[in-house]
Amino acid sequence: MTTPIIDFVRRYAEKNAVRMHMPGHKGQNVLGCEPWDITEISGADELYHARGVIRESEENAAALFGSARTLYSAEGSSLCIRAMLYLALMQGRPPVLLAARNAHRVLTAAAALLDIDVRWLYSEENSLLSCPVSPAALDAAIRREQPMAVYLTSPDYLGNTQDIPALSAVCRAHGVPLLVDNAHGAYLRFLPEDRHPLSLGADLCCDSAHKTLPCLTGAAYLHVGKNAPAVFAQQAERALSLFASTSPSYLILQSLDAANARLAADFPGQLADAVRRLSAIKGRLADHGYALTGDEPLKLTLAPKGFGYTGDGLHDLLRARNIECEFSDPDHLVLMPGPATPAADWQRVESALLAVPRRAPITQVPPSLPHPARACSPRQALLSPQIELSVEKALGRTLADAHAGCPPAVPIVAAGEIIDGDALRCFRYYGFDTCHVIA
Ligand SMILES: Cc1ncc(COP(=O)(O)O)c(C=O)c1O
């Protein structure tokens, strides 16, 4: 697998050229990475008008992911989500998006910017903790809402995945494209059994490479599926460039370039080892009495109240042993190990968790999921003058933040929705003190 971006930048750095161009550090070392931090000089290609080294590298990534087109983002999945929504609009259908409620707040913000009407798909479980969508519920919702696209978040922050093969079949039957926020699941393609949403029928997919692959923070992909509407591949560069910085980080682009070589070589084997290792640890933790949740193979999500601890409390105990986890709240503790986790660290995490003494279960359960009424569109809410209020004073007001909460997996209230008593109970439970409401 070639690494054209890295090769170009190395050659340039070795040439020791006089840098009469951006960035301002002029390649002089302070952090140690400056010589390789360049801008779009001659030969470096242009992200979002990629015809040279970037295009070659993206084509390597497309071959690895089995996509019709893969484009790089140096600004995370957040940028790709805005682009996905713009591409959905490019089909020329009425701007209605059907989205599972466990969406990241970038979705609501992007919908507001693009004036897209989001119709939420709630789960039948009525839970704040996950949002499984059944094929029957999706089928009924598509018939009812006639959306331009369906948007799913899978995996979500807590490691819950949707049944993408079944849900993509429903979308296909209706001729509605499926967009998947796969920010947490770039690695799914490289499992012994490919579980990447694109391989399972999604038309557009964003992956935060930085979350689970050996990449720098900010590195992400926008993938276009082979059976997606032609306009998606045709307009993908334009879609990203509409929202992106015109100064992409070449350090991030090089890390995506380098990842291709790893993904084509040793990464799948290392991933299989990591998943096997984690699965064995999960088994031993379950035998010890911990409840585990989520079905994502590279995430360890504990629901430790039955063991006598809140997620936050257990996180504190691990922090005292110098172990920093990805996320915790009253109900969950999320750990994200990976193929790059050193052998000694796997051992430390397991030993630390097994050393925690079991206590009497905590019986307090999370409040049930609010179904807030809608006062106005997310666009009206986010673009209105707003004030910050204590959550108590916000009762009855309309949320002007993109989301309140999330995680938990499902936002408590989204932009344009009215903060009711159920939402207030959730705010108190999750420790939110203030929120922004329409003034
Ligand atoms: C489910 C989900 N989608 C999207 C994003 C945004 O991804 P990024 O940080 O790569 O922009 C996140 C970030 O945590 C996320 O959890």
Give the SSE layout.
Layout: H1 4-15, H2 53-65, E1 69-73, H3 76-89, E2 96-100, H4 105-114, E3 117-121, H5 135-145, E4 149-153, H6 164-174, E5 178-181, E6 204-207, H7 209-212, E7 220-224, H8 230-243, H9 250-264, H10 267-288, E8 292-293, E9 300-302, H11 311-319, E10 327-328, E11 333-335, H12 343-355, H13 378-382, E12 386-390, E13 403-404, E14 413-414, H14 421-430, E15 434-438
Parallel strand pairs: 2-3, 2-4, 4-5, 5-6
Antiparallel strand pairs: 1-7, 6-7, 8-9, 9-11, 10-11, 12-15, 13-14
Helix pairs in contact: 1-9, 2-9, 3-4, 3-8, 5-6, 10-12
The structure holds pyridoxal-5'-phosphate.
Number of helices: 14
Q: Give the strand tally.
A: 15
Radius of gyration: 22 Å
Most strands sheet: 7 strands, mixed
Strand order of the largest sheet: 1-7-6-5-4-2-3
Tell me what the CATH architecture of the largest domain is: 3-Layer(aba) Sandwich
| Count of individual domains | 3
